[in-house]
Amino acid sequence: MLARLRRETQRTLLDLGPEVIFEAGHTILRQGDDSSHVVLLLSGSAKVQALSESGGPTLLGIRFGGDLVGEMAALERRARSATVTAGAHTRARLIKSSDFRRFLSEHADAAVAMVLMVNARLRWANRRRIDNANLSATKRVPRVLLEVVDTYGEQDSDGNWRIGPPLNHEELATLAGVRLRTVEKALRDLHEQDVLQRGYRSIIVTDLPRLREISDYSD
C-alpha cells in the first residue's frame, strides 16, 4: 500500500496516527472485535489468521512493512474477520477509521492503491483455490514457497532468498492446502535437491530458478 502512494500522500498517511510497537507474538487485531481502526505496518511482519469451523486457526496470509491491515472493518464497519499477529518486532501506525475514510476520499492515488492492494490479495486467494483444485499436493508446496519468495523474499549477499516471517510447517500446510506430512516430505525433497536450506523456523531458497522449474510456474 505505502509504496504505491506518491511521496506527499505517504507523508499525509503517516501523519494520521501514532506509532506503536508490537513484539513478536503480540495480537495486533483480533477476530470478532468491533474495533474499526486501521493498522499501517512500517516494518516487521504479521500473520493473518482466521478460526475455521473446527475452531483451529487458518493462516490466510502474511503482511510486511508498507502493508495495511484492518481496512475491511474500517470500511465496512463490521466486526474483525481475522486475527493479525506480529511475526517479528513490528513498528506500525494506528489510524482511526474516520480519518482513513476521509484520507481515501481526498487522495485519488490512495484510493487506487487500495484497489490494487485488494486485487493482489484476491489474486493470491484465487491462485490458492485453482492450485488446490488442479495441482497435486506435492506440487502445491513448492508453488506456495515460490509465491511467498516472489512476493516477500529478501535476497542476501550470497544470492539466496530468505522468507521473511518465520513460517512453521503447519502454517505452510495451511497455505498449500495439504497435510503436514506432505509439507515435511516436500521440504525434505527440496533440501536434498539443494533447492533450499532449512533451519529453526526458517527457510532459505538457494536455487530460485530450480524452484520455479519444479513448481511449473510462470507469471
From TrEMBL:
UniProt domain HTH crp-type: residue ranges: 135-209
GO molecular function, one term: DNA binding
Keyword DNA-binding among record annotations: yes
Alphabetized PROSITE patterns for the sequence: CNMP_BINDING_3 (PS50042), HTH_CRP_2 (PS51063)
SUPFAM superfamilies, sorted: cAMP-binding domain-like, Winged helix' DNA-binding domain
Domain Cyclic nucleotide-binding: 1-104
Superkingdom: Bacteria
GO CC terms in record: cytosol
Pfam families given in the database record: cNMP_binding, HTH_Crp_2
Keywords: DNA-binding, Transcription, Transcription regulation
Protein name: CRP-like cAMP-binding protein
Species this protein is from: Saccharopolyspora gloriosae
